[in-house]
Specification:
The complex is a heterodimer of chains A (213) and B (261). With 213 residues, chain A is mostly helical. Helix content of chain A is 82%, strand content 0%. Classes of the chains: A mainly alpha (213), B alpha/beta (261).
Chain lengths: 213, 261
């Protein structure tokens, strides 16, 4: 086990972190839209939101990744594995995040919105000043949890040939005959990344002025 | 319309599915008076109060606030949202569960409407909010979040929040029912001082003592109807009404015994 190997694994960790950050943030943006669609009173939108969530939550990420990886070339899109991986991770996490956010929105006590109506806030103000911030506060822990889940689940992208942390560890394990060491270091990297995500989440909460209930 | 009447209800009906909760309520709320709504659980007190704020939409009848129809006009046309909001501006509401916004400080809760609805500049809004917190005795808690306040303090912030919008009428739905007994006094004191200042108040309460001592107007609601109504002293002086007597006896241990001969 040399420092050189630790650094090589470190590059795998960078790939894993990059994939996770992009898919979680883009997934959040899509998740907000899907959540809004699910809560909409317009039937087709609501229906679309529900189907989207059940589909991308229902199909295993591994299957989704392989599906995208093999479907895109059929559509004439010759994209590298990284792009297929990003699309798969993003679609998957957007469905989970949409559902988490929806849960937060429907769980904001109606009385808090009624209090808004009684001081004269309009529907938009009630959404932006009361419902959304409280929903976010309710869901931030679950969203951080989801970020951690995606970070770990991103190890599946090795099936589409992406050199992430797990894939790098596998490669190095077979070339060095040091599997135990490689996977131990890889595990340590995952742990480290997730600790950063956990602290990042609490920091974000403070930044947004969210207080524990 | 007579400008001595703060709220008038004529034939107000409210149904939930097949359950008729309000069965034709006629009621006048006069300016400057404290009206207490009492009645057994499920008699429709909260529903009636919420109809007065158009948080529940009545199914029939007419409600006027300061002379203007609330929600529906006399021909039962639904009024536009802006008109509903304008008429509702006369009314403040204090809820049983306080309903303070947990992500805002006490000051933030009180200043929110001043900033967002009245569009006051930040400093001016905060000064006015501070004056209202001072009035309910909570100036020193301005920067606290609701979770850091006792129930009684939260309810006083909620009263300040309602008052800050300068309503003509304040509706209270069992404002002390979710408080520990030792905390009800501070809230009732604030309400009493508000009454002394001439605020028009409609109070749903099980605090028979408060009703007997502070209310000018007492309404006993039973099964969605006004069973008995009048000056508080008169109503309590004649608890011959069997349902009222039965109701009051339930509250004997809450100090209503003095009222029963
Ligand atoms: N949103 C609702 N949907 C269906 N039924 C309702 C709803 N709100 C109230 N009711 C019913 O209306 C009736 C009157 O309820 P309301 O809450 O007005 O009574 P209340 O006099 O305030 O009682 P309490 O003293 O327990 O607060 C009850 O039978 C209740 O079950
Ligand atoms: Mg009630």
């Amino acid at each position: 086990m040399t420092w050189e190997l630790v650094v090589l694994l470190g590059w795998g960790a960078v790939m894993t972190a990059a994939l996770s950050i992009v898919s979680i943030t883009v997934g959040l943006a899509i998740g907000v839209l899907i959540c809004a669609a699910s809560l909409s009173r317009v039937a087709p939108l609501k229906w679309f939101g529900r189907v989207y969530v059940s589909f991308f939550r229902g199909v295993p990420l591994l299957v989704l990744l392989l599906l995208i990886y093999h479907v895109l070339p059929q559509l004439g899109l010759d994209v590298p594995g990284v792009v297929a991986a990003l699309i798969g991770l993003t679609l998957c996490t957007s469905a989970y995040q949409a559902e988490t956010l929806r849960g937060g929105f429907v769980n904001v006590a109606p009385g808090l919105m009624e209090a808004g109506r009684m001081v004269g806030l309009n529907a938009r103000q009630i959404l932006l000043r009361i419902r959304a911030p409280i929903a976010l506060r309710l869901t931030l822990p679950a969203l951080v949890n989801e970020a951690i889940m995606i970070l770990k689940a991103s190890s599946l992208v090795s099936v589409v040939g992406v050199g992430d942390l797990t894939r790098t560890a596998q490669n190095l394990a077979s070339s060095t005959f040091l599997p135990l060491e490689m996977f131990a270091v890889a595990g340590a990297y995952y742990l480290l990344l997730n600790i950063v995500v956990g602290y990042g989440g609490s920091g974000l909460g403070r930044l947004l002025g969210l207080r524990p209930a | 319309m007579s400008d001595t009447l703060a709220i008038t209800l004529r034939g107000v009906v409210k149904r939930y599915g097949s359950n008729t909760v309000l069965r034709g309520i006629d009621l006048d709320i006069r300016h400057g008076e404290v009206t207490c709504l009492i009645g057994p659980s499920g008699s429709g007190k909260s529903t009636l109060l919420r109809c007065m704020a158009f948080l529940e939409e009545h199914d029939a009848g007419l409600i006027r606030v300061a002379g203007d129809p609330l929600g529906f006009d006399a021909a039962r046309n639904r009024l536009p949202q802006t008109e509903i909001a304008r008429v509702r501006r006369n009314i403040g509401m204090v809820f049983q569960q306080f309903n303070l916004w947990p992500h805002m400080t006490a000051l933030g809760n009180v200043a929110e409407g001043l900033r967002q609805v009245l569009r006051l500049p930040k400093r001016q809004a905060q000064e006015r909010a501070m004056a209202h917190l001072t009035r309910v005795g909570l100036a020193d808690r301005a920067s606290y979040y609701p979770s850091q306040l006792s129930g009684g303090q939260q309810q006083r912030v909620a009263i300040a929040r309602a008052l800050a919008m300068d309503p003509k009428i304040v509706l209270f739905d069992e404002p002390t029912s979710s408080l520990d007994p030792e905390l009800t006094g501070e809230v009732l004191n604030v309400m009493r001082s508000l009454a002394d200042d001439g605020m028009t108040m409609v109070v749903v309460t099980h605090e028979i003592g408060f009703a007997a001592h502070v209310a000018q107007h007492l309404v006993f609601l039973d099964e969605g109807q006004v069973a008995l109504e009048g000056r508080a002293g008169d109503v309590f002086a004649q608890p011959w009404h069997p349902r009222l007597r039965q109701f009051l006896e339930t509250y004997l241990d809450r100090g209503a015994s003095v009222l029963l001969g």
